[in-house]
Amino acid sequence: MRAAALQYVRKVSGFRAPAAHNQEVFDRAVDEIAEATRRLLDGLEVRGAARVREGTG
Prior knowledge:
Blueprint: H1 2-13, H2 23-43
Helix pairs in contact: 1-2
């Protein structure tokens, strides 16, 4: 999740790596997005069993 959050922050900020004076806010954004993603995934409810196709797997 952190890797996805880092990719997102890089994309929206336009920076692959922030300048030293922006590092703290950049890292905080990555942490907050990773946490929001974790809460999202933890909160999702999947109903029904996953279907398995014959001949796959």
